[in-house]
Queue: 2 jobs
Job 1
Amino acid sequence: MAKNTKKNPSSVENGILLEAGTNEVEILVFKVAGHFCGVNVAKVREVRNHEDATYLPQSPDAVDGAVRVRDAVVPLINLQQILWGEEAETVAGEEQLLLEFNEQLIAFRVQGVDRIYRVSWKDFIPLPHCPGMEAPVTGVILIEGRIVTVLDFEAIGAVLGINGATQQVAGNGSEAITASIRPPVVFADDSPLIRRMLDDALAQAGYENRLGFSDGQEAWDYLGELAQSHSTTTIRKSVAGVISDIEMPRMDGFSLTRRIRENSVLRDLPVVLFSSLISKDNEKKGRQVGATAQISKPRWEELTDTLVNVLGEVVG
């Protein structure tokens, strides 16, 4: 199911998976309070030895302070406290994960790093939706007999208000999208928080019909069923375009885009990748699978403006 790589996690190189649309991901496994957790290697910039942080007045309890990383000063987050509400004492072997997502560097305290594993998104098990409970978790996966919880760092950043993910926007292009019935915009993101924010952003931009899905597989099941009863000339009466995250359980955004492009009915639909992982390597992969546009979270205004441009002929 998962195969272990020989890469040294203290010096993580990105762009490891060069081929797009394989539905595979590389996960760095680490420990927090005795629990095995994971993060997409594409987010990891460095694994550092622990150092004490400089206290920041009036910062959230889970923010230990700020640490210097070369010429940058970044917040240091106490993962144990934000996940379990427990203050963590510094222990031997403690390390810091320096992550970059949503165009920002953030450091996280962990109690030791295991290694990198290559896994398939289809082996991930999404968490069931429980009203009132929204754990910052992308899903869980079994690796070498251990349950590894893959964390939703975007949701963690949004809760702390430190990575811009809480922004709301009524897009500049909202005047170009005015009344009348239109085909729905389909969007897929595994984070309930981000799905709500996407729905709000689309509503503020004037898109009355919106359909959200929790991963690429759900979105593909819906689109594939539509394709069976439409042709290339009629499909846009039922769906205007697709917005997709990249990293999602069961089917990632690259694989979803590739399947859309390979389908004779869906192949011309606009597909916009909206992700915290828009890097040079991932932009190349997005082009490989035929993405219409690629936008980094949390650029909500750019997203809505881009939709006006790529969907103009569809909704006009």
Job 2
Amino acid sequence: MVVIRADGNEHIGAGHIMRCLSIAEEIKKNDKCIVFVMAEEKFESLVKERGFETFVLHSDYSDMSSEEEMVIEYTKKIKPTALIVDSYFVTPHYLEKLRKITKLIYIDDRMEFAYDVDMIINYNVFAREDSYVKLYGNCDRKKPQLLLGTSYAPLRKQFLNSRITIKENVSDILVLSGATDKQHVEKGLMEWLIQEKNMLEKYRFHFVAGKLNSDYENLKKLAVKDNNLCIHYDVNDMKSLMCLCDVAVSAAGSTLYELCACGIPAITYSFADNQMPAEHEFANRKIMLSVGDIRDNIRYLEQIMQCLEHLINDYKMRSDMSAKAFELVDGKGAGRIAEYIFKKQKFI
């Protein structure tokens, strides 16, 4: 049995749950029972729909020290062969206690401290081994096994063999903002398009709204003003929708790696500290265009539209960006993680 400790809600989005589901599906192929342990019930139905057991703690997802004893007691009771933890709120003490009970794997984005675990998975474009060498070089804790880089990006199975063909003329544009869109980017862009009108005369815009998007009803009302405004709610087949489009605008979350697997030229932005390293790296390597951190940028909508026009009118740029993106991510990351754990290193 493998336990996965992950959360998702209107504050932190769905990324942690979604990537853990991809890993879980590959682990399941090795005849392992998997249980998702979550603080809240927000994504319990989704996890169960995907065929996995759940255990809800009814705790504060942002205060993992408060759940420590419950998780330790549960882990001792079911005796898993490994525990995968995916949370930004994990503490050194939390990990130290759990590692005494079972093998511990941590999915990392931030490199905040020397995690007391057996394995670290960091699939981000900015992940570097030397960063962890420095992190563990300042303490007496042994550096764990490291699975680093985009070849380990745990995407859904649908993103295998999903590369689009770059067309000379753009017709469809995809707009993504994560599960919650706390910055109301989609609403702002839709209002901008309606006011300016010029772009809507030439292109269809596909807006993706997740279950936790508080602007969904407003988006529906705005969309009736023009036939080229399309809203897609709680999308299950994201690959098909992505492959319908020629260009994308997306927040700098895990969706960027799905766009890479499809080879879709994209404009990205960040609205949280943990998104900024990926946004910077994609921009610096000219894989995507970026407008940076939008939290204190009152001109970000204008800048997104400027980048969009630039990208639409430059076929070579779109072709180059598509090739670079596709080279990064092939959609096999979750399988590689499971293979490494079960076959190469016999970790479990």
